[in-house]
Amino acid sequence: MLSRRFFLQGAAIAGCSAAAHPFMSSVTLAAVPGEQRLVVIILRGAMDGLDIVQPYGDPLLAQLRPDFPVGPDKGATDLDGFFALHPAMAELMPLWKTGELGFAHAVSTPYRDKRSHFDGQDMLEAGTGMDVPLSMVRDGWLNRLLQQMPGARAETAYSVGDDELKILSGSAAALSWAPDASLILSSQGRTLLDMIYHDDPLFRQAASEAMQITDGGDNAEDGTTDPDSPDLMAEPMMAAPADGMAAPGAPAPLKGAVGAAASLADFAASRLRGETRIAAFSLNGWDTHRGQEAAIRGPATQLAAMVTTLRQQLGPVWDKTLVLGMTEFGRTARQNGTRGTDHGTGGAMLMAGGALKGRKVYGKWPGLADADLYAGRDLMPTADIRAYAGWALRGMYGVPVDVLEKSIFPGLDIGADPRFLA
Amino acid sequence: MEFSTLAPVRFGFGLSPRQTPPASPDEILAALRGPDLLAQRWPGLTTQEALQMRDEFLRLRKAEAQNVPGATEDFKRQRQAIDRSNVGGLQIALARAVEDPTGMRERLHAFWRNHFTVRAKRTPEAPLATAHGEALRPEITGSFPALLRASTLHPMMLIYLDQIASFGPDSKRAKKRPDLKLGLNENLARELMELHTLGVGGSYTQDDVRQLAELLTGLRVMAEEGTTFAPDFAEPGAETVLGHAYGGDPAKMADIVQVLTALALHPDTSRHIATKLAVHFVGPEPDPALTGAMSEAYLGAKGQLLPVYEVLLTHPAAQGGGFLKVRQPFDYIATGVRAMGFDGKAVMAFNGPQIRRHAFKPLRDMGQRWLGAPAPNGWPEAAEEWISPQQLAARINWALKAPAGLQAKLPEPADFARAALGPRLSDLVAQAVPRSESRPEAAALVLASAEMNRR
To answer: A179-188 pLDDT, tens per residue?
Structure first.
């Protein structure tokens, strides 16, 4: 894998959401007092919790999903006699056995019924309740946390020169690398650019940061793409699609996608070993409307690679770390007519880290019978996913419950502590 | 502000030394009412041609797999032809944008292409993505119901949002082949209401999504004739969408056309479209008086779009407010190429490497892969989404390389600054340009200036 360079966007809290950006490979990093580390991975596209953490002990699951491989007989790994882990994540089983991996099931944000990815993701990043119009939801729960913590600082690291979240999208290919980050300006040109951008803060700040990073720069990655290659656009399109809607039999994501996911986690780990205490980034590709058996393998493998990399690269700090993998909503309990699943409600959350009391699937299981499903189609959410994030912030950073319910996750009823921290 | 200062920035692709900017909204409206001269001059890929290219690709891939002599070479050539058609689609779009005297038709074309985002997930579909945009074109100055039909029933949309794999669970076909377990896929039905018509705040429910998905079953994409309707694949019986019953037995394409028209003319759609247009053209928080007037014009004209554009061009709330937006990368490159003094003919004469180096690849580096929006909601509007440090670095580098790479014949830097920015030339830029240590850097300062990027 090519080494990727990241650079930091200012110490100020950016105007846009501090949570991971949908179009960029970016990592939001925050320094807060204390030694505990929190890593939030936003799983974009709606991860099918019923496929990643399969309640195979309920015979209804196989009936609802006759064409999906379900349970240990079809390759999943048994967790506790009722739930089983998707085969693409088997590499995480050692962590399960040592109590460093766990899940919460039947969770969701308070977002209901419209099942729009875009609004659902806003909710997750914003962490607000439905008491404010979605169009007004802009800042993120992380921003609000930082405002509550004296001495906290946030910064956003971008991968240099690659704009879309290709490295995480499953369509990554060596050809997609576009690290055109060198600035070929003379020093006088730089001075003059500084001057002409003076009155426009957006351009002034972006240019000054671009110059800062390219000054330090090894530009070894330049020239990895040949703009005249006829396959420039063809190759990435032949790989698994970015949003995971792969046709049956589509090729598995390239090794590069897994490697890139790992390298993003590696970068986050390098910062978490330093002053950073909270890191947030995204993983795309979970929108498996068609041919889910093939389509979910890519993002699942990439998620496992991220967790494995964090485990390896955090070293002793892993013991103080909690990783949360959160998605905007779950998917339909039944398979649809194209061997995929459509947008649903309740889903699953991944938890990992030495700070976790793992080896457990947390949450109240609602059942899969028709009457138990939400609107007769989706897994019924029995807990607010934000309550888990809230209890994590309470336990790790001592954030008071009333601040969590009023300021950080407005409208949240945090409920009883699920006691998932070690 | 003079309309001739406002219009090229808000409704066009900036200034060209070869053209006089429109002096009044009437000039723009007259151009929109008239024939689509630029599509006549540089026609894009037709759906028929795109289907043939896809078919040929699939045929040759099969032949190659069967080791037919010569098939490997033919297959490679077909792959290259598809790649060229993709880059060629960009070249045509750029030529039209650079040539269009008012710019508004091309800006609208880009807007609607994005509103109805499609993306080829597989190589053989790439020509269809180009053709989908071309199929929208005749309707963007007509009515929204017709535009919605052109988009929804196009093979690329049916492929992109999985409609081709959706079957009525009780259709004849599903019953005949129970082993295939054919059934519904909600993807197109949901995005039709959420993104294309009512908007996510619109008055639809999950049941409406489901019912619409059932109503849409039967749509197929055939190798030769493109979109067709197969009653055997359709869910039997009527479906109720937003309280109205559609269809019945036998299922027909006309039922689908009927529901599309109803969705198009729904008041929620008028508000969604009005707001989206205003946010795109005017600014992030458009005056409710403007969007209200646009929405009224839309409903009053039964979805005819010219009356809506007329409000957008003439309403007082669309005249001021400052230039808070940032040109999206395609818009930015077209504006720059236009400012350099090229016309459409010159753009069509750029060779392959020029288009790839100075348009196709820079678009990607600036964050807007050509016809490659990552999700069906298309590209973002907010200025901050487009000016990250590395995106701005890509714009600055383009400004440095493109004039030489495209062999632009630029005037003296100070003159270039005046011609490119007109009345918007700021003192800061005017002072910086003569202090540059080289002509290329002086030109780059003009092209990279905030005034050139903002709109």
So the answer is: 334 566 777 7
| 3-state SS, one letter per residue, for A6-62 | EEEECCCCCCCCCCCCCCCCEEEEEECCCCCEEEEEEECCCCCHHHHEECCCCCHHH
Q: pLDDT-derived band of residue A25, with 50, 70 and 90 as boundaries?
A: low
CA count, 13 A, side-chain hemisphere, B447: 33
| Cross-strand pairs, A347 | A107
- CB < 8 Å to B166, chain A: 337-338
Nearest chain A Cα distance for residue B441, angstroms: 6
Residue from B128, B195, B203, B388 to probe the interface with A (highest A Cβ count within 10 Å): B388
State which residues form the domain around A82: 37-185+253-407
What's the CA gap between A210 and B60, in Å, rounded? 46
How open is the CA angle A123-A31-A384, to the nearest 5 degrees?
25
- Residue contact B162–A338, C-beta within 8 A: yes
In chain A, how many domains are there? 1
The closest alpha carbon to A340, from A283, A377, A295, A374, belongs to A295
Kind and range of the H or E element at A321?
Answer: strand A321-327
Task: Indicate yes or no: CB of A196 within 8 angstroms of CB of B79.
Answer: no
Torsion angle, CA of B188/B191/B195/B199, rounded to 10 degrees? 120
Distance (Å, rounded) from C-alpha B189 to C-alpha B320?
38
**What residues of chain A lie within 8 A of the CB of B394, using their CB?**
161, 163, 180
Let me know if residue A199 belongs to a domain. Answer: no
A282-296, B108-122, B230-244, B323-337, range with the lowest pLDDT: A282-296
Q: Map out the domains of chain B as residue ranges.
A: 158-264, 329-452
The one-letter amino acid code at A94 reads P
Higher pLDDT pick, B197 / B364? B197
* Residues from chain B contacting residue A161 (CB–CB below 8 Å): 365, 390, 393-394
Domain-located, residue A149: yes
Phi, psi of A129 (to 5 degrees): -85, -175
Planar angle of CA A53, A56, A59, nearest 5 degrees: 145
